[in-house]
Amino acid sequence: GSGIPKENLNKIFDPFFSTKGVWGKDELVGTGMGLSICRNIAHEHGGELSVQSIVGMGTTFTLTLPMNRSSSKLFMDTIQNHKLRILFFTLDKSIIAEYFASSCKANIEILTFDNINSITGKLSNIANFVVCDAKFSGKVELYRMVEKCQSNNVPYILINCGTMEYQLSELYNNSIANFKELPDFEKLIQTYITNRNNLVHT
């Protein structure tokens, strides 16, 4: 589509809100109940329906559903038994702000570094895994961080990989996962736990 105007974006899940037919100006028929019903169904299953839109570019609806109703509790029990420490290697402090509340709730320690020389001692004694920002302005620093992870046998995840650069393809291939944007906190942790369990079983 052509994107949803900002003034409508906060209303689209409201019952009976429509820009179509019966209530709106468009010629197409609509009652304004479709998205409201869809979101309610998602909530009934412990999930969420969200939207992102930019006028002139388009709209993305994201439906997330838990694997089962107790998956969130299972996730919290799992991570609280592991006393995890995550090292974020980035210059962008807003990334830390994005995850800070979730990390506190889950009792997970977050460490932040933007300079490889600031990391002293064995990396495996500092963090369980590393999250590297692929948009890091100093690509040499990013390579050095990945080398440090590999030499210390510490897994790393790449985030903000929206526009994959040819020079970084090796870093992507050797990561346990790479995400186009910022994944939610639970997805980050689940990726690490799944990877660690796979290593144990192989």
Explain this structure to me?
By secondary structure, this protein is an alpha/beta fold. Helix content is 39%, strand content 17%. The protein has 8 helices and 7 strands. Strand 3, helix 4 and strand 4 form a beta-alpha-beta unit. The model has no long low-confidence stretch (mean pLDDT 80).
What's this, in brief?
By secondary structure, this protein is an alpha/beta fold.
How many DSSP helices? 8
Strand order of the largest sheet: 4-3-5-6-7
Which stretches are poorly predicted, pLDDT < 50 over at least 5 residues? none
Strand content: 15-25%
Q: Let me know the number of strands.
A: 7
Using the alpha-carbon principal axes, give the shape.
Answer: elongated
Gyration radius, in Å: 21 Å
- Helix and strand pattern: HHEEHEHEHEHEHEH
Query: Residue-averaged pLDDT, rounded?
Result: 80
Helix-strand makeup class: alpha/beta
- Calculate the terminal CA-CA distance, rounded to whole Å: 46 Å
Quick one: biggest sheet?
A: 5 strands, parallel
Helix percent reads 25-40%
